[in-house]
Design a protein that fits this description.
Layout: E1 12-23, E2 26-38, E3 43-47, H1 54-61, E4 69-74, E5 77-78, H2 84-93, E6 95-98, H3 110-121, H4 125-138, H5 154-166, E7 172-176, H6 184-200, E8 203-208, H7 211-214, E9 219-224, E10 227-233, H8 239-252, H9 269-285, H10 288-325, E11 330-335, H11 354-360, E12 366-381, E13 384-393, H12 397-401, E14 405-408, H13 413-417, E15 422-425, H14 427-434, E16 443-446, E17 449-457, E18 472-476, H15 477-485, E19 492-497, H16 503-518, E20 523-527, H17 528-571, H18 573-581, H19 586-622, H20 630-656, H21 660-664
Helix pairs in contact: 3-4, 3-5, 5-6, 9-19, 10-17, 10-19, 10-20, 17-19, 17-20, 19-20
The protein binds adenosine-5'-diphosphate and magnesium ion (MG).
Magnesium ion (MG) binds at residues 54-55, 176.
Length: 667
Amino acid sequence: MSSGSTRETALISLRDVRKRYVNGDVAVDVLRGISLDIHAGEFVAIMGASGSGKSTLMHILGCLDKPSAGQYLFNGEDVATLDADQLAWLRREAFGFVFQSYHLIAAGSATENVEVPAVYAGMGRTERHARARALLSQLGLADRLDHRPNQLSGGQQQRVSIARALMNGGHIILADEPTGALDTHSGAEVMTLLGDLAREGHTVILITHDQSVAAHADRVIEISDGEIISDAPSSSQSVTEQAVAADESVSQRALPVLSARATHPPVSFIPEALEACSMALRSLRSNLFRTLLTLLGVVIGVGSVVAMLAIGEGARASVLERISAMGTNLLVVRPGFEGFGRRSADGEMATLTVEDALALSGLPNIIASVPENTSSATARAAGRDTSTRVNATSADYPLLRNWQPEQGIFFGPDDERRYAAVAVIGQTVARSLFGQASPLGEFLLLNNVPFQVIGVMSEQGATAWGDDADDVVFVPLSTGSLRLSGQRHLRSVTVAVADVTQMDMTEAAVADLLRERHGVEDFRIRNMAAIVETASAAQNTLTILLGSIAAISLLVGGIGVMNIMLVSVTERTREIGVRMATGARTRNILQQFLVEAVVVSAIGGIVGVLIGVGVAAVIGALVMPVQFSVPIMVLAFACAAGTGLIFGFAPALKAARLDPVVALSAE
Ligand code: ADP
Ligand code: MG
């Protein structure tokens, strides 16, 4: 006899529900046509021997599993028509599960465990926290709020799980062997609690194999081999009295109505993501060592990229700076190929003349055309001597190189015309010959020819080729040719171009003019801008190389993240089951694991950037110049986080697609 089958629509109504498991060729019929009605406020025990199909039935009642055949009406509505999210909603709002083995999340405190269903219901943090604490206190756990499951006794853990079942209201408490793992005393306490809840108006469905436990209920449904063999009021209880008491409370209790889904406020994305973040941090903290190892791959990847690029950029910048210091608007003309032109006495090509330099200065778009004739010489003064480089050039030289005297003056056109025996010396020569004394006005001997020092150039440092730019003596070209080399041919003519965008045209004009004057192409023109480009291109190749190393290390890091997330999903399968049973949507589970993967990778990214910057800073302070690039750091970090997103997706999807029943029964 079914109690109250004549009353209003049953809360739960099963019609000929069957469940068949097929393993290969073997089909097992676990439920074989179960029909029953359970009304709001009832306290029902489902009793049967082990293996009779009780848990299977409970999973179907709690919408964790679907029947193979038959109909399940919840509050008059066919559950088969609900999609996954609606079923999650029903589990969240209507049911509260209490399991034999408690199924608490090991990484969470008692309070956090109780809060789980409310998280998925979108309840605010403070409200949730307060409610969880209040429930735990009511159940006598006020002094165990922050204990983890392994710090609680079995009875206490079961009370935590009852609190969790009540968190979202717990209209229907589904308890599967709730006392099965408890000692007699704790078991009795739990049964008292369930009885109290039933009296308060909760519908309680208790599953047990134990006659004495079942006796606490108002109605006992006995199943055997997947069939109901009896359904009767409990002998030890006064049913009428209980039913009336229950009905009164139930009338005040808002029952979950499926149509209420429409009015349920949608959970906004930001708090949900924050919640997922803090859950992720919690679970990562509980596996700190493993998390650190996983981080390592990403940290090394990001760190080495940031450090290498800072060093590479530093090197590139200093090379480019040196090249640019020589002037990117310069065309350098030198004597040309072997076999062409006249040779001078010392075997040098002797095709460029001062007249060529003069002619070039007449071309359009040219600031200056400076002839240079360098040779080595011994400079002697004040009893000291040094071997140095003599550059016989024109008065425009400082203009060309943007390099001015620090003391005195550079020689002028007059000095050139008069064949003046004057010299302007570099800092290195000044130091070697004169020490701390001022060289101005002093005489020095260049290959035994006396020159008067009229200027000292400012400090220049090393050239792009690593020579000492300050180890030089400048003399007028005319004087140099006459008194030093006796040659009128030039080592080079350097042309400064006014408009750099016209560089190529000017270079062509220079070449045309020289060809015209010489009749043959016995010269070479080097374009400084082209050298800068070449240097840049070489550096870009380096950057691409470093970038590939970055990509590879991030790939390796990403595989590490994926690996560890897969392990994490496997390890936490039961937790996933619990979350699903407490109402997590597929999306929540997906999001949780995805956020965990991204959080691991992002932390790895941040640590990597910091370590990379640190290493580069040390190298910058001790070894060579480095240059930090914020966009590179941001990019490296974003790549790390993105790696987490990409490589975390497969594990997260695996978790989200787990079947709740399979997940719950995982080891
Ligand atoms: P109870 O909870 O009453 O002890 P269950 O509902 O857990 O029983 O299981 C009933 C029967 O169904 C058992 O014989 C069990 O072996 C079988 N069974 C449960 N789950 C599966 C499954 N996934 N595949 C095959 N058989 C199953
Ligand atoms: Mg069971």
